[in-house]
Design a protein that fits this description.
- The chain starts with 11 loop residues before the first helix and ends with a helix.
- It is mainly alpha-helical.
- It has a domain of about 80 residues: Hypothetical Protein Yqey, Chain: A, domain1.
């Protein structure tokens, strides 16, 4: 799929989010997989380490109310997000080379198509 022209002044996460409904409507499975995976990797990078937090205890000692157990997520810079997407592209290209070496060119082509979608938005 050829992605529509993107406004490079938009933050990368917003470009990825804007491209997702376009890919869904175009029924481009490779683009949808790549975009969802990249957005998921960004969300996972924002998660904080809970460490050795107490997971159980008395009910009366538990926090109560909506959002009482929520923790603030890590704030990522634009360069952090670009590095995550670049790593996603590199992972796909590496896996594609591995599949190609094993004679699975159809899987390699799909991974390269996913990498091209992400590279076009980077």
């Amino acid at each position: 799929m050829s992605m529509p022209t993107v406004d490079k002044s938009m933050p990368l996460r917003e470009r990825l989010r804007a491209a997702l409904p376009v890919a869904i409507k175009a029924r481009d499975r490779d683009a949808v997989k790549a975009l969802r995976s990249a957005l998921g990797a960004i969300d996972n990078a924002e998660a904080i380490d809970t460490g050795d937090a107490v997971r159980a205890g008395a009910i009366e000692a538990s926090a109560a109310g909506l959002g009482a157990q929520e923790a603030r997520r890590r704030d990522l810079t634009e360069s952090d997000i670009e590095a995550i997407v670049a790593a996603e592209i590199a992972d796909r290209n590496l896996a594609a080379a591995d599949y190609e070496g094993r004679g699975r060119s159809e899987y390699a082509a799909a991974l390269r198509a996913e990498a091209e979608v992400l590279a076009g938005l980077l």
